[in-house]
Amino acid sequence: MAAVGQGPLAFFTEMESQGGIIVRETPKLDLELYIANYGDRSRFDRLLLIGRSSVPLCIEALKAAVAEAKKGSDIQRYRDAWECIRIVAPEEPEATWDDAWVTTTQKNNVAETHRLEMELKGYKNNLVKESIRIGHRDLGEHLERIGDFNAASDTYLKMRPEASTQYHITDLGKHVISVLFQKKEWPSVLSNITKIVASNLSDEDSKNLQPYTKMVTGVAQLGCDRYYEAARSFLEVGEPSICQQYNDIASPNDVAVYGGLLALASMNRQELQTRVLDNSGFRNYLELEPHIRKAVSMFVNGRYSACLAVLETIRTDCLLDIYLQRHVTTIYSEIRSKCIVQYFLPFSCVTLDSLHSAFARPGESLEKELVTMIRSGTLKARINTIDKLLVAVSADSRVAMQSKALDTARNYEKEAIERIRRMSLAAADLEVKGTSRKAQGPNRGEPSSVDQWLDDSRRPISLADDSLM
């Protein structure tokens, strides 16, 4: 961390050296309205991310993060926000360490932890299962609020022996996922959400729980770089009114942005039409973010440069999103590559000038990008540097036919050898007794001795090996 009082320049230089993403453009979002869409802990995390990433909104976001932290009882959250603002804006009142609040909060946290532990001990002495479950839940929620995530997770897991109904199992899963979400342990999130989905819920409960499970699954798959699976999950979230109940995860606007961008990056034109534009459930989300719907429509209709132009208008906002930030460059690159490929697909060749006019950024050449796409196999073409053309490379049908014929001949030869060997073993009345299924006795579906021998043997035999013929 930079020294105190060095100001925003030193702060952002340090953040950038640590691998952080710095956004110097002014975003379109209104910070106060934007942050009001989220629950308490998500609100703080988003404010802190914006404060560490956005040059124009840095001070405003960090001041709001300090205020948000002091509404709760997590001292570490307050410390994280204070460490930033004391460097960026040391003259602000929020940059002064509030020792009185920290001391009082710490004292209250210890007292509350002790009280809940004593209550839980009393419940265990009384041997009332429901009271024990609730005692573990209350203690886990308290530990989560004060930022002790490992202890909170362990406490939640102790609810499992007392989870006697389907509601209890679902409630346990939600609490564990809440901790894993804040620790960003995405594979574990997916594992736990699978347990909830696989449980025997009624149709009504499954319908009400669908927005939660799909949102959690989508964010976790995004965190694991599974863009197509994440897009599918966001497109199936359900009603926005139910989605709003889980604003600690994402808002309905986020679902529209995540689903639209990931679908553009991972789905073909037909899927975009059927799964996004014609999806009656997702249409309600697209109404909240009309620019996403516009971008998808333009791609489907072949207006690729216009699609990219629309997406560029929201790039800055996406770079300030807590889940999207790390993936924005990759997602936009994949969408751009798809647009170039689709633009070139109907032609045998196009001029580089036309590609530059459609896709090149001001003052940049497209040739390096085309070379990268060709080398990676994304674009089946070659560049004619003399005539300044991009020429399609079609597969040699004769070579493809010959390759397929050779594969068929090899497969036929292999199958013929196995059939001849089987007939020869049967004709010679050879028998190889197995040991793994010997205890099962005859006529219980075990393989024949010949089949068992063929399964155990992996020795390659050529046509020249005629010892069994």
Number of H/I helices:
24
Task: Estimate percent helicity.
Answer: 55-70%
Question: How many domains is the backbone divided into?
Answer: 4
**Percent strand:** under 5%
- The strand order across the widest sheet is 1-3-2
Structural class per helix/strand content? Answer: mainly alpha
- SS elements, strand count: 3
Average pLDDT score: 85
Q: What's the shape?
A: globular
Q: Any idea what the radius of gyration is?
A: 31 Å
Identify low-pLDDT runs: 1-5, 437-446, 456-469
Describe this structure in words.
This protein has 469 residues and is mainly alpha-helical. The protein folds into four domains: 1-97; 108-201; 221-345, no CATH class; 347-392, no CATH class. Helix content is 65%, strand content 2%. The protein contains 24 helices and three strands. The protein has a three-stranded antiparallel β-sheet. Helix 8 (149-157) packs antiparallel against helix 9 (166-183), helix 11 (203-223) runs antiparallel to helix 12 (227-235) and helix 14 (252-266) packs parallel to helix 17 (290-300). The N and C termini lie far apart (79 Å). Mean pLDDT is 85; it is low at 1-5, 437-446 and 456-469.
